[in-house]
Amino acid sequence: MKEIISKKVQDMQPSGIRAFFDLVLGMKDVISLGVGEPDFVTPWQIREAGIYSLEEGFTSYTSNKGLYKLRLSISRYLKSGYGLEYCPDEEILITVGVSEGFDLSLRAIINPGDKILIPSPSYVSYGPLTELAGGIPIYIDTKNEGFKLTPKILEKHIDKKTKAVILNYPTNPTGISYTGKELNEINKIILKHKLLCISDEIYGDLTYDFEHTPFATLTGAKENTIYLNGFSKSYAMTGWRVGFVCGSKEIIAAMTKIHQYTIMCVPITSQMAACEALQTGRKSVEEMKREYKRRREFICEGLNKSGFECIKPDGAFYVFASIKKTGLDCLDFAQRLLKEQKVAVVPGTAFGCEFQDYIRISYASSLDNLKEALIRIENFLKNIRR
Amino acid sequence: MDEILEILEKDARTAPEDIARMLKKKPQKIKETIKKYEKEGVILKYKTVINKEIIKDADSEVRALIEVNITPQKDVGFDRVAERIYSFPEVSSCYLISGTYDLLLIVEGKDLHTVSRFIAEKLAPLENIKGTTTHFLLKKYKEDGVILKHKEENKRIAISY
């Protein structure tokens, strides 16, 4: 019999920690610091807008690019927030979360054998989607640079097959972000080598110590930048699956070609809710942001006290903590912590095979949970040391 | 508003040590600030929100919203009459409002009879009170930002990227 599954998909590496995830999902009464989404429910007025749109009978397709009024709101938001100008007709596409936007970006630009640079640790989908699109992911280990991509290590990895650089800041899993000045230095290298930048800024609104700078706002960057953002994290709307891509007319047209055949359009209810989010949701975003910031201080102080080495995150809601001192591999650590103390974290290898000395801790959890989890982690460490 | 107040308004039990960790300040400093707020009357009281709707053997309690029309007095306006009214322990809230009447009261009593008697015998006969309209409360859905039915929880899965 012929093989059913395509060679390309067979070659995709299954996540090594799938079994661990199943273990977590099968256990009860676990305090989970392993969640990659907000613990808040979508603010009510946004949910209500979704309900109202259903009552009014908005149950049809929208234009492939998404509701014009949503694209217009996004365009206005970017203009007033960052001075960034994108034309709602031709330069904005509404996608099923950043995930789809990211996949489209790669499929629109990659020719077989093109190299895509990915600072690692990185979000789980970047590498596999690059391969699926026919590209070659080149990981840039940022461990020794404080998890930051520097112009120097970036340039070291560029050759004539390099097509694009992926940025994600604040970063999942490290929470690290970049100041405008740091981004400028990176941009210089990108411009020098005429590369594209795919910038996943889904956590941009959750930057705590300085202003978030969209990559496209840098001098000369806009033309070569694919700007990805969405509503999932800042508006606590993960399940609605709404994101957007901004880029040049040509890039958006290319992405829309694929999008129209695979997705057609983002569900109208979600798009209606997203319109409401932009109109009235900013106050909720600010409130949630303040809450995450307080939790960040709380968890970082607690982890440092327990002897973990972790770089204080600038944004998002993750801490990428080193467990090297324990002598345990991250999967062992996570499994034992789960079984012995019922606390779930994500093993570092999920974000790159070289991060076996790290775990990702999410602080998108209530203060009571964080407090209890810190006590349990402390107990766990005592047991290991014994 | 100071973040300390924002935190305490959400959960008055948050320990000063925890607030200190969240705001990256010294616990002693947080304690002093809270003391200061208490002294200045910014923080008036810490209380527990109890859902009496679900306590079976709770003393039955009747609440009424009472609209009161009053004649303002020279120099002190509504304040003196208001004071005479809100000083009754039966009055749990008292607001001066715009519109067709002047004061809105929330009055509590153990039964309908008690509340009615309070209105008829204490409140209505007061000098300067022109009239009252009483609305008895039938069901509480939400109070001071707290929904009484259930605690809203996020139904997210336990682990994800």
Parts with pLDDT < 50 across at least 5 consecutive residues of chain A: none
Percent of residues in beta strands of chain B: 15-25%
* CATH 2nd-level architecture of the largest domain in chain A: 3-Layer(aba) Sandwich
Count of individual helical segments of chain B: 5
Most strands sheet of chain A: 7 strands, mixed
Helix content of chain A: 40-55%
CATH class of the largest domain in chain A: Alpha Beta
Within CATH, the superfamily of the largest domain in chain A carries the name Type I PLP-dependent aspartate aminotransferase-like (Major domain)
CATH topology type of the largest domain in chain B = Alpha-Beta Plaits
Spatially, the strands of the biggest sheet of chain A line up as 2-8-7-6-5-3-4
Please provide the count of β strands of chain A: 13
Average pLDDT figure of chain B: 91
Report low-confidence residues of chain B grouped into runs of 5 or more: none
Chain pair with largest interface:
A-B, 29 and 19 residues
CATH superfamily of the largest domain in chain B: Lrp/AsnC effector binding domain/regulation of amino acid metabolism (RAM) domain
- The average pLDDT score of chain A comes to 96
Question: Can you give a write-up of this model?
Answer:
The complex is a heterodimer of chains A (386) and B (161). With 386 residues, chain A is α/β, with parallel strands linked by helices. Chain A has helices at 7-11, 18-25, 44-55, 68-82, 97-109, 126-132, 151-156, 180-192, 249-262, 268-280, 282-305, 330-341, 367-385, and strands at 31-32, 92-95, 115-120, 136-141, 162-168, 196-200, 225-230, 243-246, 309-310, 318-322, 343-344, 346-347, 358-362. The N and C termini of chain A lie far apart (56 Å). The radius of gyration of chain A is 21 Å and the shape is globular. Chain A is built from 13 helices and 13 strands. The mean pLDDT of chain A is 96. In chain A, the strands form three sheets. A seven-stranded mixed beta sheet of chain A has the order 2-8-7-6-5-3-4, sandwiched between helices. Chain A has a four-stranded antiparallel beta sheet with strand order 9-10-13-12. In chain A, strands 1-11 form a two-stranded parallel ribbon. Chain A has two domains: 7-42 and 283-381, Aspartate Aminotransferase, domain 1 (Alpha-Beta Complex); 44-280, Type I PLP-dependent aspartate aminotransferase-like (Major domain) (Aspartate Aminotransferase, domain 2), CATH 3.40.640. In chain A, helix 6 (126-132) links the parallel strand 3 and strand 4. Chain B has helices at 3-10, 16-23, 27-40, 79-86, 112-123; strands at 62-70, 91-96, 103-109, 129-136, 142-143, 146-147. Chain B is α+β, with helices and mostly antiparallel strands and 161 residues long. Chain B folds into two domains: 3-40, no CATH class; 60-139, Alpha-Beta Plaits (2-Layer Sandwich), CATH 3.30.70.920. In chain B, helix 2 crosses helix 3 (27-40). In chain B, the strands form two sheets. In chain B, strands 2-3-1-4 form a four-stranded antiparallel beta sheet. A two-stranded antiparallel ribbon of chain B has the order 5-6. Chain A binds chain B through residues 21, 24-25, 30, 32, 34-41, 123-124, 172, 238, 290, 294-295, 297-298, 301-302, 344, 346, 350, 367, 371, and chain B through 3, 6-7, 11, 14, 18, 21-24, 152-154, 156-161.
